[in-house]
Amino acid sequence: MRFLLVALFAFVPAILADAPTGADTIQQMIKEGNDKLQKALDDMRKQLGVSENPSGDELVKLMKEKNDKMGEEIKKWRAKVEEQIKNNPDASAALKNIKDKLKEAQDKLKKENPDIAKNAEKLGESIKSTWDSITQEVEKSYKDFSKKGGKQEDIENVFKNIVDAGVKAANELKDGVDKAINKKP
């Protein structure tokens, strides 16, 4: 038993001398986390086609391009769906069947409950009128928003400034982390 105690006291300091200190472990964790974050950001930049240190202008341009591309894709998709419905007899028949059933239900309601049918018709006209007004106002607002010198430019400038400030803050944080990693206690 004494031999074990003596051996333990003799070898423990030698083993502990090679063990990492708490500060070394924390620095290593910070470094590994930083490396993983940097790799994820690099991968994302490559996927989006953005430079290594993007400016706010570059990101605003990228967002516009992606937004325009998405709008075009939606238009193509809608045209494709309409074309499929028009060219597919089964889809056309199903759509006609739905319209016929709705018309049938409407006629039945008019016959059995004329007052309710009138109110429902007025409500439908009111909803359609409201919808038309809303869509016209949205279109008008979008045109005003998009025109040169409109709110879109203001928002883009604010976004650009936020991105630039965020990039600056991120670089300062990265520099601080790099200093902390490379600094030995």
From TrEMBL:
Signal peptide annotation: 1-17
One Pfam family in the UniProt entry: ApoLp-III
Protein name: Uncharacterized protein
Key words, A-Z: Coiled coil, Signal
Gene Ontology CC annotations of this record: extracellular region
Entries under InterPro entries matching the protein: ApoLp-III
Molecular function GO terms recorded: lipid binding
GO biological process: lipid transport
Coiled-coil regions listed in the entry: 60-115
Source taxon at top rank: Eukaryota
Keyword Nucleotide-binding assigned: no
